[in-house]
Structures are given as structure tokens and as C-alpha cells.
Amino acid sequence: MQSLSGSGLPNSHQALLRNRNLLSGRVALLGVASAHLLSELPFSGLALSEHAGVFHALERHENWQACFGYDAPALADSSYDSVVVFLPKARAELEMRLALARSLAAENARMILIGEKKEGIAGAIKQLKAVAPQASKIDSARHCQVWRAEAIDPVPGFRVQDWLGWNRIECSGIAIDVAGLPGIFSQNGLDDGTRMLLETLAEQPVCGDRLLDFACGAGVIGAWIQAHQSAEGKPVASVDGVDVQSQAVICARETYRRNRAEGTIFASDGLSGIDGLWSGIISNPPFHTGVKTDTSMTEQFLQDVKRHLQPGGELRLVANSFLPYEALIKRYIGRVERLREDKRFTVYRAFRGQ
Predict the structure, then answer these.
(1) How many alpha carbons lie under 13 Å from residue 54 in its C-beta half-sphere?
(2) DSSP letter string over 309-331?
(3) Do 276 and 309 touch, CB atoms closer than 8 A?
(4) The architecture CATH gives domain 164-351
(5) What's the Cα-to-Cα distance from 86 to each of 45, 67, 83, 119, 216, rounded to whole Å?
(6) Are 275 and 95 in contact (CB under 8 A)?
(7) Which of the 8 DSSP states describes residue 160?
(8) What is the pTM of this model?
(9) What is the CATH T-level fold of the domain 11-160, as seen in this structure?
(10) C-alpha count within 13 angstroms, C-beta hemisphere, residue 168
(11) Residuewise pLDDT in 10s, the chain (354 residues)
């Protein structure tokens, strides 16, 4: 066991460095949260992240094969001797990640599971032992546990499509089918914030023939807008979508396909990775990183949004009422009004000046 290094890394990554002697042969890392980890490892191999920003940072490490999410073309069956699984936030996603790990594993491969106590590593052990009964804890460090399973049973043929589920949602008389994957926001139904946002869009539509849904998730907003416009006999706008998470991008594309919606779904960490002008931008942005409130993504979005809005274009945004977005919208875009609010949510809109 080696001493801790990489002190600027997430705890789980530091715990891996402490146990880097466990890695041998061809190495696969699943769920990388910081690309700086690769600089600390004297190996090459595969590094997967579901976060678009982390993925692009991984790409800069030429000795590693960077992968974005569970449908990356480079995920080759039976290719790796050491497979590291970092614990995801959602328990259901761990089951999918373990299935991917088993498909990547070569004969007699070693699997390593690492996660923090506060993230639920204790409960995750049951899931690990369901597929690797021989797994045992080998270290505790940086509030993490490190578990190892030798000679795991490979199960090739992982397909993310096998994990897709469908849910039918309805709002203001319009129903659409929505794709879901483990780990995606609001997988099991229409959340109350998005419902309030859609109701305002039914009453006071955002005008334009090309719109953008920022932090689009499973593509609910874009598919619903187009279905509503079609039902009303109005011209149907193209609604592009952007999200940072690979599962969201996969699901949004599937939702669009099922509902015959038009628009491009981009994978990007904020708006910095995309070009274009839209006549309207709509969003129900996230405000959590894990269990912590984190509004930094939305603040950056509000700083960037003006250069992606056409003159006179509208921003429509729903957020928890306690979040300080009204002042930020006013600062970066201009005069802002509240279209609807209750104790939990507020729908804001603002227009870019000419």
C-alpha cells in the first residue's frame, strides 16, 4: 500500500492512488471525476466519464482511451485485466456500471470498487457481492472504502439500450413518451418544476422557429413543446438540446426519436462548447452536485446566455424559489419578470435587448 498523493483530487481518486499497486495489465477506469488522476498513474488504458467537461479533459491524455458515457464506441468486450469502478451517485447506476465492468473484463480480471461513506459505499457492497461474491475490503482511506474482487466472471455484450426504460408524461393535455436511464434526473416522472415551466409555455409560448433547451435532461421540454405546437395547429419549432451528462444525451436523443421531435442534442459542459444563436432559450437547470447545492453551472450559463440569444430573444427559466437567480438574470440579460411562482418554484423570463 502506498502513501496518499494527488491531494487535489476527489477522495475516491486519492484512495485509488494509495492502492495503485493493485492495478496491472490493461486498466479501465469507470466514472472518472477528475482527469488529473491520469497524470498520477504510470499506466495507460481506458478512462470513462459521463461528464462532457471531464471527458474533454481526459482526451488530452494521449496514452489513455477517453470514453464519454456508456455508449462510447471504444468500449470493447473482454479487453481489460484491472477494472476500477468509482461509485456513482445513483444506486441504480452502479448496477449498470458493474454490468459494463463485467463486459470489459478479460478472463481472470480484477475488479476494484471505490466510494465514499457519505455516497453510500456500505449499501453498494451488496450490489458488488451480487456479481462478485468473493469481493473483500482491502483499505479505508480518505473517508472511502476500497473493495477488490479477483477473477470476476466476465459477461460480454453490454448494451446501454438494454437499460433504457420509458415513461409517459402528460401536461396541459399533451402526452409524450420519455426515455430513462439509471442516474438521470427525474427518471420516474415529470418533476414539479418542469411541470410549472411547461404550463407557462402552454399559456405564453416562447416565440421562434429555433429554440434551445439548456440542461435538457431526457428531452422532455423540447419534445413536449413540439407536440403542443402540433396539437395547436401552429408552426412547429426545432428545439435543440444541450446537457453535460451522457445518460441525458442518450435519453434525449431517444425521446426525440420516439416522439418524432426535431432538433440536435449536444453534449457540452455549459454553453462554451456550442455555437449558434437561438430565438429562445429555455431551462430547468440543475442546482446539485451530489448532495450539495451548487449553482455555479447556472451562474455560468446566465453569463454566457446573452451571446447565444438573438436580439429580442427570450430566456425562460424555472428554479427553486430560494435560489438567487432573479438578480443574476437582471445583471446578465436585463429586465426580468416572474411569470408564475409558489412556495417551491418560480418561472422567470427575460428578453435580450435589441
Answers:
(1) 21
(2) EEEEEEEEEEEETTS-HHHHHHH
(3) no
(4) 3-Layer(aba) Sandwich (3.40)
(5) 16, 15, 10, 11, 25
(6) no
(7) G
(8) 0.92
(9) Rossmann fold (3.40.50)
(10) 3
(11) 444 455 689 999 999 999 999 999 999 999 999 999 999 998 899 999 999 999 999 999 999 999 999 999 999 999 999 999 999 988 889 999 999 999 999 999 999 999 998 889 988 999 999 999 999 999 998 899 999 999 998 999 999 999 999 999 999 999 999 999 998 866 567 999 999 999 999 999 999 999 999 999 999 999 999 999 999 999 999 999 999 999 999 999 999 999 999 999 999 999 988 999 999 999 998 764 444 456 677 888 999 999 999 999 999 999 999 988 999 999 999 999 999 999 999 999 999 987
- CA-based radius of gyration for the chain: 22
Residues of the chain with CATH 3.40.50.150: 11-160, 164-351
C-alpha cell at 67: 470514453
Maximum CA pair distance of the chain? 67
Q: 91-104 vs 121-131: helix axis angle to the nearest 10?
A: 40
DSSP secondary structure, 12-56, as one string: HHHHHHHTGGG--SSEEEES-S-THHHHH-S--EEEEESBHHHHH
Q: How many residues does the chain have?
A: 354
- The neighbour count for residue 156, using CB atoms within 10 Å, is 12
**Torsions phi, psi for 268 (to 5 deg):** -160, 145
Strands (E) across 195-277 are located at 210-214, 238-243, 265-267
